[in-house]
Amino acid sequence: MEIKDTYKTIDSPGEETLFKDRNSKFFGYTFPVSSEEEVKRYIENLKKQHHSARHWCYAWQIGSENYRYRVNDDGEPSNSAGQPIYGQIQSFEVTNILIIVVRYFGGVKLGVGGLINAYRTSAQQALEASKIVEKTINISFVIHFEYKDMNKVMRIIKENNIKITKQELELNCKLYILVRKRNIDKINEVFSPLYEIKIKRLADQ
Q1: What are phi and psi of 2, to 5 degrees?
Q2: pLDDT tens string 41-100
Q3: What confidence tens digit (pLDDT) does each residue in 174-200 have?
Q4: What is the CATH number of the domain that holds 47?
Q5: Dihedral of CA 125/131/133/139: which sign?
Q6: Residue-range definition of the domain harbouring residue 120
Q7: What are the Impact N-terminal domain coordinates in residue numbering (predicted)?
Q8: CATH code for the domain of 184
Q9: Domain count across the chain
Q10: Of 55, 66, 68, 92, which residue is least crowded by CB atoms under 10 Å?
Q11: Is residue 143 in a domain?
Q12: Does residue 120 sit within a domain?
């Protein structure tokens, strides 16, 4: 069975979108995020930008295998805003993403059904206006070796198109590398006969 080692996300914020329903305006935004600190920062910035809006509802999901997510109705009836937004994250199968929908109340109540439709549609439009990209799930390793083994290690790295993220080259050398998930067994096999070279998987990011 083939290992699934890709995920979909966005690299840059999407274009602002606007959905209208009975005078209420819903502005949709997407942002790439990898931490809750980034989420807070984007929300704070939008609250400054749209300081006279009534609601700033959102949903986010972070992670490439083990997902964390949160939804927020920000004063709208329970499950009428954050959950429909999150439903679009699931529908488009994207992660490491934050979707915020900013609502300006137009004086006419939409009802729970109307709100669900408005927030879902706004999130969908925001995602459609975003450039979704596919990325590979990569695992971090560190290779420990002596300088005399440098050529051997570098040859393996070149032959297998391995990405080096950091290097500490002294008498005892360390190379930090990223290996695509589906290639982990192969890389371990290549290095295992070389007893003087140690490769260790780092804690998942």
Answers
A1: -75, 135
A2: 999 999 999 999 999 999 999 998 889 999 999 999 999 999 999 999 999 999 999 999
A3: 999 999 898 888 888 888 888 888 989
A4: 3.30.230.30
A5: negative
A6: 6-134
A7: 22-127
A8: 3.30.70.260
A9: 2
A10: 66
A11: yes
A12: yes
Residue type for position 187: I
Residue type, 3: I
Instruction: Give one DSSP letter per residue of the chain, joined into a string.
Output: -----EEEEESSPPPPEEEEETTEEEEEEEEE-SSHHHHHHHHHHHHHHTTT-SEEEEEEEE-SSS-EEEEE-TTSSTTSSHHHHHHHHHHTTB-SEEEEEEEE--SS--HHHHHHHHHHHHHHHHHHTS-EEEEE-EEEEEEEEEGGGHHHHHHHHHHTTPEEEEEE-SSEEEEEEEEEGGGHHHHHHHHTT-TTSEEEEPPP-
Residues in the chain: 205
Q: Is residue 94 part of a domain?
A: yes
Same domain, 128 and 188: no
